[in-house]
Amino acid sequence: MRIIKGAGEWAQPVAGTANDWVEHLRRPDLSVGTYCIPAGGADTQSPHTEDEIYVVTAGRARIVTPDGEAEVGPGAVIFVPAGEEHRFVDVAEDLALLVVFGPAYGSRGLRA
């Protein structure tokens, strides 16, 4: 057992960066991290080679994919399959996301 301290907690991105990503746990079959985007900020990620689950722990935004879009806030759980374009937009409040990748982030090929 391991308690993952700080997972899903808001962290201000480093000056000069659009957002903040911290990987807290990495195993061959999954990884867990926190992704933060400040209010009014830009989501600069590209599609990933792994499936992912987002759990919104703080903030409000919209997620946009080729299949549609949805407003998200604390408690929302979002599944994004590997390779699907997705982006958080209209970040109205500092957004903190607990992210679970399966298998581990970047393990299926080049990191996107």
Automatic annotation (TrEMBL):
A Pfam family per the record: Cupin_2
Cupin type-2 domain span: 35-101
InterPro entries: Cupin_2, RmlC-like_jellyroll, RmlC_Cupin_sf
Gene3D superfamilies: Jelly Rolls
Lineage top rank: taxon: Bacteria
Protein name, UniProt field: Cupin type-2 domain-containing protein
Organism for this UniProt entry: Streptosporangium carneum
